[in-house]
Design a protein that fits this description.
Chain A: Residues 95-304 form the ABC transmembrane type-1 domain. The complex is a heterodimer of chains A (314) and B (288). Chain A has 314 residues and is mainly alpha-helical. In chain A, 80% of the residues lie in helices and 0% in strands. Chain A is built from 13 helices and no strands. Chain A is globular and about 80 Å long. Classes of the chains: A mainly alpha (314), B mainly alpha (288).
Chain lengths: 314, 288
């Protein structure tokens, strides 16, 4: 197990270096002087000269990359062009709201998708299956920002029940936080629910055909016990794989959902920074999101080893 | 291939196209996609009004006999803007997926066929591209290069590259070991001839299925980019930018939010139904 973990961690190094290279090169692709891009148009000459020296802009590109990487590893992501705040604390403060929103969306999606997928599979080719499968396909085809806008239209404009957007800390105002969480979490959770339901259904169909399920039925076990203890337990692996992929989707999905609902997480921070041409923040956010994504994928692989002991041996 | 082999190769293909249209879901998918393509091509003939000309006498008028889908805050006909908006979605969807398919398949073929360092270099690059959530990478690329139709196509193509590369590589590694490839080697064909004449045609089917499913996500990504203002620039209409505009008028003109979203939804649903149908044809293991 320890060896497996070490091997998986080792394989992350080239990927993380690659993502850092992409984040580094992104800023170099911005037309013009990278120092101006990073400090903004209004920067004075001494600051520009200082940054040029720090970025080693007179050195070859690979020297520039490594000196930038060294700074990143020390936690120096530079300063935001707007207001001059350090990028790292800015990113850190946006992580909380994003994590809360993602967790709520994931919870909503699982509560809907797992029962729906299991029911669709156990009642294959019945009305319930067709209905669940069709709703899932529609959910998959629904652009999330449109769903978000429709929810605002219905629950904030037509029936003024919930706030259309914004955020308060759950520590300050728990009820206000929950009221503002509902619409974005449903918006983000809907698309996840759709693909989780489809995967649950497919995985269950596969398992329900297997010999041990037939044996369990033949032994006279209660149908619900066969479905949940025998079949579902073994259908979890593809579902966990999908959940891992979905965490990545979540990190992308929050970009849109947070923008629609003015939710001050990492996604909204990224979009705002893009429009303000606040490249240090864009660079930091891209790097952080990619690193999170890679780590989540690692976590998914580790969860396999818990669910399925066969993976450990392989 | 001999003539007899060619004739045999033709037969199953005709079978699956017919089977595809007999599947009601796939047939609905084909119909929705065709409708969008017809609207995109025939937009100037079909649209009742000019999509970009303001009419300040008809600002924010609700759906009516004259303006079926109402008008926006500048009095522009929403129906006409949706019809013209099909162009951006279809063009970006088709070109970005086609570009990703060609480049990604070439990269995957080379990686799978030549192996060793070619494989290592190509696939590590793909792994890195895969390490970004796709929307974020597309956003970052368009943000750096500037918002435009071309850059949206480029960004979405880059995001989809690793998907095609991985499939092409896996398939190539299987096909490479098959006897007819050995036979060609024995006959003295060079690696490029084998790659292009024998391997490439044999890995096409899963790539095409994946491509049809990726149209749906490419069109959604395009709508996200234009929703955020990073796609085709105004006044040219796109469904995403129409929705962005609608947010400012949710109380005065809710219809502005209804129809562009419905258009995206139907086209994406069409591509998803078509892709599901194609996958069922090509991959009998998938149970429905």
């Amino acid at each position: 197990m320890g060896r497996y973990l070490l091997g998986r961690l080792g394989s992350l190094v080239p990927i993380l270096l690659g993502t850092s290279l992409v984040a580094f090169l992104l800023i170099r692709l911005v037309p013009g002087d990278p120092a101006v891009a990073l400090l903004g148009m209004e920067a004075d000459d001494t600051a520009l000269a200082a940054l040029r020296a720090k970025l080693a802009l007179d050195q070859p590109l690979w020297v520039q990359y490594f000196s930038w990487l060294a700074a990143i590893l020390k936690g120096d992501f530079g300063r935001s062009i707007q207001g001059g705040r350090e990028v790292l604390p800015l990113l850190a403060s946006a992580l909380g709201p994003t994590a809360l929103l993602s967790a709520a969306a994931l919870a909503i999606s699982l509560v809907i998708a797992i029962p729906a997928g299991v029911i669709a599979a156990t009642r294959r080719n019945t009305g319930a299956d067709y209905a669940a499968s069709f709703v899932a396909l529609c959910g998959l085809s629904l652009p999330s920002f449109w769903l978000g806008i429709l929810l605002i239209l219905l629950f904030s404009v037509q029936i003024p029940l919930l706030p259309a957007s914004g955020y308060v800390s759950p520590l300050v105002d728990p009820a206000g936080f929950l009221a503002r969480l509902v619409l974005p979490a449903v918006t983000l959770g809907a698309a996840l629910a759709a693909s989780t339901m489809r995967m649950t259904r497919a995985a269950m169909l596969e398992v329900l055909r297997s010999d041990y399920v037939r044996t369990a039925r033949a032994k006279g076990l209660a149908p619900s016990r066969v479905v949940w203890r025998h079949a579902f337990a073994n259908a979890q692996i593809p579902i966990v794989t999908l959940l891992g992929i979905q965490m990545g989707q979540l990190l992308g999905g929050v970009v849109i959902t947070e923008t629609v609902f003015a939710w001050p997480g990492i996604g909204k921070l990224t979009v705002d920074a893009i429009f303000a041409r606040d490249y240090p923040v864009v660079q930091g956010a891209v790097l952080l999101t990619a690193a999170l994504f890679v780590l989540i994928n690692l976590a998914t692989d580790l969860v396999y080893t818990v669910i399925d002991p066969r993976v450990r041996v392989a | 291939m001999t003539d007899a082999a060619l004739a045999n190769a033709e037969k199953p293909r005709r079978d699956w196209t017919r089977g595809l249209l007999r599947d009601p879901r796939a047939a609905l998918g084909v119909a929705l996609v065709l409708l969008a393509v017809i609207l995109a091509i025939g937009a100037p003939l079909i649209a009742p009004f000019d999509p970009e000309t303001p009419d300040f006498g008809a600002i924010l008028s609700p759906p009516s006999a004259e303006h079926w889908f109402g008008t926006d805050d500048l009095g522009r006909d929403v129906l006409s803007r949706i019809i013209f908006g099909a162009r951006a979605s279809i063009v970006v969807g088709v070109l970005s997926v086609a570009g990703a398919l060609v480049v990604g398949a070439a990269a995957g073929l080379a990686a799978g066929f030549f192996g060793r360092w070619t494989d290592a270099v190509i696939m590590r690059v793909m792994d890195v591209l895969f390490a970004f959530p796709s929307i974020l990478l597309a956003l970052a690329i368009t943000a750096v290069l500037g918002p435009s139709l071309q850059n949206a196509i480029l960004a979405i193509a880059v995001v989809n590259l690793p998907v095609f590369a991985r499939i092409a590589r896996a398939q190539t590694m299987v096909v490479r070991e098959l006897e007819y490839v050995d036979a060609q080697r024995a006959l003295g064909f060079g690696p490029w001839a084998i790659l292009l004449r024998t391997v490439a045609p044999n890995i096409a089917a899963p790539l095409i299925v994946q491509g049809s499913l990726l149209f749906a996500s490419a069109i959604i990504t395009e709508s996200y980019l234009s929703f955020l203002g990073l796609g085709v620039q105004p006044p040219a209409p796109t469904w995403g930018s129409m929705l962005r505009n609608a947010i400012g008028f949710l109380d005065m003109g809710p219809w502005l939010a209804w129809f562009p979203g419905l258009a995206i939804f139907l086209v994406v649903l069409g591509f998803n139904l078509l892709g599901d149908g194609l996958r069922d044809r090509f991959d009998p293991r998938e149970t429905r």
